[in-house]
Amino acid sequence: MKRFExxxxxxxxxxxxxxxxxxxxxxxxxxxxxxxTPAHVDQAVRAAKAAFADWRESSDEDRRDMINRIADxxxxxxxxxxxxxxxxxxxxxxxxxGVGAGMEVGGAVAWTRVTxxxxxxxxxxxxxxxxxxxxxxKPLGVVGSITPWNWxxxxxVWHVIPALRTGNTVVIKPxxxxxxxxxxxxxxxxxxxxxxxxxxxxxAGDVGQAIAQHxxxxxxxxxxxxxxxxxxxxxxxxxxxxxxxxLGGNDAGIVLADVKPKxxxxxxxxxxxxxxxxxxxxLKRLYVHESIYDDICNELAAIAKTVKVGHGLEQxxxxxxxxxxxxxxxxxxxAEDARRSGGRFLTGGREMDRPGYFYEPTIVAxxxxxxxLVDEEPFGPIVPVIKYQDEDEAIRLANDSPxxxxxxxxxxxxxxxxxxxxxxxxxxxxxxxxxxxxxDAPFGGIKNSGIGVEFGRYGLEEYTSxxxxxxPK
Length: 473
Ligand code: ADP
Description:
Elements lengths: L1 E3 L1 E3 L2 E3 L4 E6 L4 E7 L3 H18 L4 H17 L1 H12 L11 H17 L5 E5 L3 E9 L2 E5 L5 H14 L3 E5 L6 H10 L8 E3 L4 H9 L5 E5 L2 H12 L4 E5 L4 E5 L5 H13 L9 E7 L3 H14 L18 H16 L3 E4 L14 E4 L6 H4 L6 E7 L2 H9 L3 E2 L1 E5 L3 H8 L6 E4 L14 E2 L2 E2 L4 H6 L2 E9 L1
Parallel strand pairs: 1-5, 8-9, 8-11, 9-10, 11-12, 13-14, 13-19, 14-17, 16-17, 19-20
Antiparallel strand pairs: 2-3, 4-5, 6-7, 7-23, 12-22, 15-16, 18-21
The structure holds adenosine-5'-diphosphate.
């Protein structure tokens, strides 16, 4: 079985204990990796703190050059990373509408390159006969990154690269379910970066908590559940850490009466089911106008019945398994509750009879707000389709949620859709698509979906503190 090591201060660190990494398509281990402890966090933070002294002084050109070389290294190892991502997450190589391991690794390369190009120049806000006032952006120090299991490599790049670009050093902790692509990424990056600039410690919540509490960590960037985000905020309060929290979403999509159901069904299906629904900004509650309700339900069900579900390394597979048994249990529990509350199952509704954590793509009609499948994030291949009568009602139902990550309006009238979009309570709204992110547009949630944004100049600024400099004339 292939073994993956942790890296601290530019060197691999052998650990007594190891972690078996499960392939969710077989429920069998396929790799083994070092298992870190809170003591390793201490060691890694010490290394990152020491490395910060020189790294913060390095020039923009040098940092940009190294980050571009990291992008080159990721790209040169793309087939290897795609295989690792499929083995640890279960997502297909290609995937429905091209959302799969290829997109994850390609995205990691693209984000790295684009982020390398950004600058945060000194801003002059006054320059007159009295004084010149400059606003400088300075790195924070050691950034702790805690990442989830749904897009392990891509989300690690989202955390690590802007932190490095702005002159911070990093200790990253990948999810205990999916550590291998991150361990390999850190190993490759360490062939390029000075030692101690990027360190990785594996482990579960106790290791994450040690990072959140560590007095020498200046900021936490976290992607994961709202529940864990709140724990991190509590643990980080003692040292007043800066936080970027990208948490759960239960995104609503509203389909207006003027769409052509057959035309939009594949995009709607992809928005709901890509990565088997295991994406924070996947479409998870679909509100459809009563005049086209049956048509949309039938079109989606027709796709769900023909989509190819299987082991992600097999050719043409479009959807893979759930990533872990616990997530499968959540999906099963919400499906059972939907059945009891009168949900009409148009497709699916069962665990698949094969090894691994597979659940049939499932579409449930006739539920309303107040049933668990509508109110809670299932994070799996199951979507409730809810009927509405008028647009005010649809907006009210969509906003009736403690979450506020993304939302979407589907209509052939773009002007009308953009007006309605502004009434949705969420960080990003898409028209006629859902969940598409890009490296130069800010992305983040409101309400229980998080604090702060990632990507672009706005995302970069979150890895810095402001220093105002006043120079008298
Ligand atoms: P899930 O329960 O589906 O794995 P989480 O949000 O709990 O989702 O996990 C996301 C990341 O947070 C993982 O890397 C996990 O190990 C880490 N984590 C879990 N509990 C804590 C905690 N108390 N403090 C810091 N990190 C944690």
